[in-house]
What we know:
This protein has about 350 residues and is α/β, with parallel strands linked by helices. Helix 2 packs antiparallel against helix 9 and helix 4 (about 90-100) packs across helix 5. It has 12 helices and 11 strands.
Amino acid sequence: MHTRDLSEHVAYEAGRGIEEVARELGIDPANLIKLSSNENAFGPAPKAIEAIKARAPSVHSYPKSSAADLRARLAERHDVASEQIWLANGGDGAIDCLSRAMIRPGDGVLVPDPGFAYYGMSSRYHHGSVGTYPIRKAEDFEQSAETVLNHYDGERIVYLTSPHNPTGSEMSASDVETIATDTDEETLVVVDEAYVEYSDSPSAIELIDGRDDIAVIRTFSKVYGLAGLRLGFAVVPEAWADAYARVNTPFAASEIACRAGLAALDDDEHIEKTIETAAWARAYIYETFDGPTWESAGNFVLCEVGDGGAVTEAAQREGIIVRDTTSFGLPECVRITCGTREETKRAVEVFNGLV
């Protein structure tokens, strides 16, 4: 007995955690600052914590009503029908739902390089193929419709990331619309907006009305601080929104996740503090880091350090965990998540002593 041929599949490489680094280096976890996974520096939204505690006694029940409540709330917020909100187990779960709904064996997807590995992984799981378009360091990681369309070859799904991870660059709404218009009728343009709350740019959700070829992925992992609960969603065109019931796993989002998500949406103080601190941290890194950086619209900054792997290891010994971007094809860089003011200052101090 063997699995099917998985030779073309690559395991997802997550940012390193405090516990594993502490064990490896033999140091107290309390002495480490984790800035490797673009998590919320302030933790979960406090109102979400209250909701989690309040709902804990009811987890014996399936989350039918809570999921309906959350879909309705998100639909109201984004001015779409509730059927257009596809709840999922994180943003990657939303990607899987779209793969199930769209990809036929042999269909291709077009993904950014560098980019989120799961776009291609999900396509391969569903017997699709993967093509890439470049986001080049030599062009300061600029994203454009021209570059995407020059590499487009009739793929079923085209993935765009705005803000882009790990570079922080954005794709304009006009370019998203151009790509959707200039690709085939049966091509879906998916815009991953995991970090959009940190940006001043408009959401591509505004483009969905009246179209059947644009979808948007969002997450509660970043600004709302609920990464550990795995809650995300897609906003899809109304024309085929009813496909969700046929491709969704039973109760893809848990009772606790849905109730925490509803509460987090109301936690304005936490959201504002998170966004304001990330903006401060980005500016501080640009101004004080002793090396090249790139302007970011997310809660992280890409920094050039020389040998990213070696510098990352050295920083860990100084108590700072960041993301070595070798797996993104950028071995000379690291990605630093925006921490609290104290964490960000300490991170820059450590890296300025290493680069």
